[in-house]
Amino acid sequence: GSKWSYIGPDGEKAWPKKYPFCGGIFQSPIDFHKDILQYDSNLLPLEFIGYNVSSTDQFTLINNGHSVKMYLLPTMYIRSLPFEYTASQLHLHWGNRNKSEGSEHTVSGKHFAAELHIVHYNSEKYPDVTAAMDKADGLAVLAILFEIGPFNPSYEKIFRHFRNVKYKDQMVQVPGFNIQELLPERLDEYYRYEGSLTTPPCYPSVLWTVFRHPVKISHEQLLALETAMYCTESDDPEPLEMVDNFRKVQEFHERLVFISFRE
Ligand SMILES: NS(=O)(=O)c1c(F)c(F)c(S(=O)(=O)CCO)c(N[C@H]2CCc3ccccc32)c1F
Ligand SMILES: [Zn+2]
């Protein structure tokens, strides 16, 4: 079983003992700072196919003890990457009510409030995400940074279900909606680099696309994210709050991050 956590004896410093790739190369997340950024005019805007899901369809939202993740539909995929990548799931990383700085990627050393990841797998080369997740060209993850602003009705379509997935292994159905509503403005402006899963098994199998512009959610929505869920099961006598579920930034030496925008 996935016996790892973000705190205590099974925290990230211990991950490489059970999951050797976590101590290996190309680890994510990283800090984006100017001396590793290089403009690349070949970086095209991503194309999203099938993201506008009918409300007659449903997504399954589940608390897996590490994050809250929502399974997406196999009819959803992205083009204009080296291969076609089919959507698998989305999940979030966040901080805690006293320190809303829970993004995984940082920009010039600064954390954003939280971060959404949309995990896709290379469906041109692999039959499913499990076959793809340990291959160098297996996964493509889109990352969206969060900052505080006005109430966000699109994110509320997911957040309003948090009270039904408070504990590990609880799940709920979410009516379909246009997942493109979750994306920031200026999809043509992003950071691109080759990295890894940010949780065990930390396979170096991810083509990362981190959008330059954050999305805004309200303070109340962020507080709900930071206080709604537990890592433990509903009957656990020692409940553990699901907070600070982000990995520290990793060393990134002799490598470049490509940007699709000029400063
Ligand atoms: N930040 S991240 O994008 O690297 C990332 C996570 F942060 C994360 F929590 C998960 S998970 O599945 O919810 C729990 C750990 O497996 C995954 N899930 C990945 C890892 C293993 C796997 C297998 C099938 C589908 C998705 C994933 C993940 F890719
Ligand atoms: Zn993630």
Radius of gyration in whole Å, from Cα?
17 Å
User: Which residue ranges are poorly predicted, with pLDDT under 50 across at least 5 consecutive positions?
Assistant: none
Number of helices: 4
Largest sheet composition: 13 strands, mixed
Q: Report the bound ligands by name, code or SMILES.
A: the ligand NS(=O)(=O)c1c(F)c(F)c(S(=O)(=O)CCO)c(N[C@H]2CCc3ccccc32)c1F, zinc ion
Strand pairing plus helix content: what structural class?
Answer: mainly beta
Instruction: Tell me the span between the first and last alpha carbons.
Output: 44 Å
Which overall shape is indicated by the principal axes computed on the Cα atoms?
globular
The succession of helices and strands, N to C, reads HEEEEEEEEEEHEHEEEEHE
Helix content: under 10%
Mean pLDDT: 97
Strand content is 25-35%
DSSP summary, beta strand count: 16
Oligomer: single chain
Word description of this protein:
There is one protein chain. The protein is mainly beta and 263 residues long. The protein contains 4 helices and 16 strands. The strands form 2 sheets. Strands 2, 3, 4, 5, 6, 7, 10, 11, 12, 13, 14, 15 and 16 form a 13-stranded mixed beta sheet that branches. A 3-stranded mixed beta sheet has the order 1-8-9, with no helix packed on it. The longest helix is centred in the C-terminal third of the chain and has 9 residues. The protein is globular and about 50 Å long. The N and C termini lie far apart (44 Å). Zinc ion binds next to strand 7.
